[in-house]
Amino acid sequence: MFWVGLYAQSPSDWWYFGAEAGVHFTTTGPVAVLDGVMTTQEGCASVSSSDGDLLFYTDGTDVWDATHTVMPNGDSLLGNLSSTQSSVIVPYPGSSNKYAIVTVRGCTGGSTTGQAGYYFAYSVVDMTLNSGLGDVIPAQKNIILMDSVSEKCTAVPHANGTDLWLIGRMQDSARYHAFRLTSSGVTQEVISHIGVPGLCVGYMLANHSGDRLVDATYGATNPNLVFHFDQSSGVLYDPDSIYVSTGGIYGVHFSPNDELVYLSGSAGIKQYDLTAANIQASEYDLFQGQTWALAEGPDEQIYAARYQTSYLARIN
Questions:
Q1: CA 250, CA 293: separation in Å to the nearest integer?
Q2: DSSP-derived 3-state class of residue 219
Q3: What's the pTM value of the predicted model, to 2 decimals?
Q4: How many other CB atoms sit within 10 Å of the CB of residue 238?
Q5: Are 41 and 82 in contact (CB under 8 A)?
Q6: Are 192 and 235 spatial neighbours (Cβ–Cβ below 8 Å)?
């Protein structure tokens, strides 16, 4: 996933995912593309230029450039193809040519890099290198921020409009870590002890405004949590709990206006109204049938991965 979706040509014009699957968002709608070389079970991310050209994509372990070739130094990153959010791509603060790939190995996938830890880490790609195709900078590769993490990661703009918060969750814990990424690297860590201990699997995502986060719980006994987030301090606070008794939740997403939140998993897709006095009571069954990851396209439609099928579903 990329951390933000924009309309028209945008950083999310090209998606690569699944078993060599891909989608190109054109001015007339999304079109399937079959030139990708990545096969991943779960987490992956792609990024395009502001002109809508593919830059690179990753499964959190390898990084492929626009020619579908592994970048120099673009192997052995610390993600895992069986981690829910194995990789998230964000623009590197203070640079128009660099990106950070945040990688999360998580708890269910075995090591694909020979590393023993369950790391939350990041690596930096410089698009001015390798004749403009990009290169992972060796001195800024696999910078480990924490160990024993859940398979969750999201990024939120800092209140100053320049820096970013990279947010992860400790495995089987109610402890969230927010790392402030600046042009000089990570300069601050903020820990919020809040909510309830949750299972390792499932997405975590910030809304478009950056002031709320939703964290999925892949289990019916623990709640899915919708936090408020302070973009100045990096603190999570005042969570709302949403229980889904009919199955585990894996994917999450906010509607484009941030008023609704969608939860997806083994029981399908459920919708909740965040403006309601009782969010739990606003539950609406949008779709029944196994539906996993959710992602918003540059057309402001939400797309859903249906396990072992040939098509994406879409929330219009």
A1: 7
A2: coil
A3: 0.94
A4: 10
A5: yes
A6: yes
